[in-house]
Design a protein that fits this description.
The longest helix has 20 residues. β5, α5 and β6 form a beta-alpha-beta unit. By secondary structure, this protein is an alpha/beta fold. The chain is globular, with a radius of gyration of 20 Å. It is 44% helix and 14% strand.
């Protein structure tokens, strides 16, 4: 029986994870749930899964949860620092980090230091603090399982043969603007950017898919997850999203992972490893897939992808700067304060300003937070010009 905590239980990944729990209730027990402000949904989850410990992102939300009557006897509830309390609870042995944003940094590091197995669906953890997390996992002999479909696919393809891998290939749908004229990017509306052709995701990550920054962040994650050199990590456009990623071995062989586009599959793989559990999902029908296309990404169309590779070559805290500037720029776009084609420009200007001051690798999460705060202030000033 695996005893799990889910950070971000009311988000899309968290809900998918709980669906896996329902399918395999004889193998998985929910011990902890952490959410943001969605009191009503968390109350429903508490009623169904009966965790020992829960948290919300503010004391006010916790009080509303208490008022709902959802907290039965023996359930501990936390507000501030609640993510860490849930992630390090002594009865938890497996932590799924599915919360969005930077709030999960401290909780994930604390869970690693407490010896918990980690399943990671939060990009910021490795993009901002990859060296710290990987080193802590090495010291405490902790496994980090990727839950992102692309990295999870690579993990399955490698299957213990990392020394034989010469290339990691991440696939990308290309987003909604793969074939739109570049000259029209300045008139793209938030509504258009939020129409993803394949996946149903939150607003920020959907815009990241439209700019291909999501794939740039995944390149950075792959560097840390697989101890890969940037030259070993490639991206290809695969509009059908059937092949989730591939690896190439030294003998020229390539192995790909295929599957339906449903996040329950990579979540279940992380939970079941090294076993394979039966899934209630329908099998992929290869005869219905049609032709599968693989195209080189156009970095003139998607400059954010090039910026991510540039950051990897510069090292240090530059990936934190990239992430912060992107979050600020995307928020400005979604609030109609910035044009779609200006997102990459804001990020690039912030990176250029940071190149000298953020070249050292952060030695602590406080260093990461300091770089993050500076980048947010600077990128806001670029937008305000």
């Amino acid at each position: 029986m695996k005893r799990i905590a889910i950070l971000g239980s009311t988000g899309s990944i968290g809900k998918s994870a709980l669906a896996v729990v329902v399918s395999h209730s004889d193998r998985v027990q929910v011990v902890g749930l952490a959410a943001g402000q969605n009191v009503d949904l968390l109350a429903q989850q508490i009623h169904q899964f009966k965790p020992t410990v829960v948290s919300l992102s503010s004391p006010d939300a916790v009080e509303r949860l208490r008022g709902s009557g959802a907290l039965g006897q023996g359930i501990s509830a936390y507000g501030e620092n609640g993510l860490t309390e849930v992630a390090t609870h002594p009865d938890v042995d497996f932590v799924l980090c599915a919360s969005s944003g930077t709030a999960a940094l401290e909780a994930t590091l604390a869970a690693i230091e407490a010896g918990k197995t980690i399943a990671l669906a939060n990009k910021e953890v490795l993009v901002m603090a990859g060296s710290l997390m990987v080193e802590a996992a090495r010291r405490h002999k902790v496994k980090i399982f990727p839950v992102d479909s692309e990295h999870n696919a690579i993990y399955q393809c490698v299957d213990g043969r990392a020394s034989d891998v010469v290339r990691y290939v991440l696939t990308a749908s290309g987003g909604p603007f793969r074939e739109r004229e570049i000259e029209e990017f300045g008139s793209v509306t938030p509504e258009e950017a939020l129409e993803h052709p394949t996946w149903a995701m939150g607003p920020k990550i959907t815009v990241d898919s439209a700019t291909m920054m999501n794939k740039g962040l995944e390149v950075i994650e792959a560097r840390w997850l697989f101890d890969a050199h940037p030259d070993q990590i490639d991206v290809v456009i695969h509009p059908q999203s059937v092949v989730h990623s591939l690896v190439e071995f030294r003998d020229g062989s390539m192995i790909a992972q295929l599957g339906v586009t449903d996040m329950r599959l990579p979540i279940q793989y992380a939970l079941s490893y090294p076993e394979r559990w039966t899934t209630p999902l329908a099998s992929l029908d290869l005869t219905a897939c049609g032709p599968l296309e693989f195209l080189a990404p156009d970095t003139q169309r998607f400059p954010c992808l090039s910026l991510a590779y540039k950051v990897l070559s510069g090292g240090g805290g530059l990936s934190t700067v990239l992430n912060a500037a992107n979050e600020v720029a995307v928020a400005a776009f979604l609030s109609d304060r910035l044009a779609f084609n200006e997102i990459s420009s804001v990020i690039e200007q912030t990176l250029n300003a940071a190149w000298g001051r953020s070249s050292e690798t952060p030695s602590s999460l406080s260093d990461v937070r300091e770089v993050d705060a500076w980048a947010r202030v600077f990128s806001e000033s670029v937008i305000a010009e």
